[in-house]
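Translate structure to sequence.
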């Protein structure tokens, strides 16, 4: 009979395998989602935020280089673009409900996106952030796959842009319900539009978990914001730099 491998040797093998990073990513998110459900879907117990914190803490304690972690996590990362494209389904289904709301929605989208960009860039500049950080703030309110593409076009770091995009999404998904409740904003289509513009993909996940109408409008807002930003933002940034 073959001798059993010592636990230490098994651990060394798994920690050096891309499979470990994939399991870590999925397991931490699953744990976060279980806690989210048990907390009655409270926005404070955000499953993505929990997953990010646990995964970051784990790879830090293991002294695992990010490149090694990404070898396994890239399989989930690949699905990010696919999931974004799949949002075309709720967007298509929601267009029939846009009658009488399209002007208000587009106005909110343009003003909300412009304010989000201007405030982030201005605050970063006032606090003395470098050009790399300030430049990465321009696309942080667009969903990650589109934001990284915009970052390449305006010649800033796609990695930094992705980091700020995820942080924006997490904060938006956590804080938006409290802010809208405080402002007594009750119509689901308005709440969905606001969270879609301000918190993109992570906000959509939160919106769908609460109300289907809110999720549908959040999807449409994020999709339209992504398209307009991809077209207009590089032009605006080039003009500002000139």
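Result:
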């Amino acid at each position: 009979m073959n001798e059993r491998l010592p636990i230490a040797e098994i651990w060394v093998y798994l920690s050096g395998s891309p499979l470990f990073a994939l399991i870590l990513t999925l397991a931490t998110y699953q744990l976060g989602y279980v806690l989210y459900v048990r907390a009655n879907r409270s926005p404070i117990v955000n499953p993505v935020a929990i997953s990010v914190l646990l995964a970051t803490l784990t790879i830090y304690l293991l002294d695992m280089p990010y490149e090694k972690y990404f070898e396994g996590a890239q399989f989930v990362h690949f699905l990010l673009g696919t999931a974004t494209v799949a949002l075309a389904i709720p967007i298509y289904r929601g267009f029939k409900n846009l009658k009488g709301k399209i002007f208000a929605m587009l106005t909110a989208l343009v003003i909300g996106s412009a304010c989000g960009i201007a405030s982030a860039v201005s605050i970063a500049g006032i606090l003395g952030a470098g050009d790399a950080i300030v430049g990465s703030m321009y696309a942080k309110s667009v969903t990650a796959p589109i934001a990284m593409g915009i970052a390449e076009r305006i010649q800033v770091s796609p990695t930094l842009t992705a980091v700020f995009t995820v942080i924006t999404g997490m904060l938006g998904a956590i804080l938006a319900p409290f802010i809208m409740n405080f402002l007594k904003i009750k119509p689901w289509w308005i709440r969905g539009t606001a969270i879609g513009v301000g918190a993109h993909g992570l906000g959509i996940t939160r919106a769908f978990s609460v109300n289907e109408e809110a999720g549908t409008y959040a999807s449409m807002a994020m999709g339209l914001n992504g398209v307009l930003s991809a077209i207009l933002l590089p032009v605006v940034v080039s003009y500002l730099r000139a």
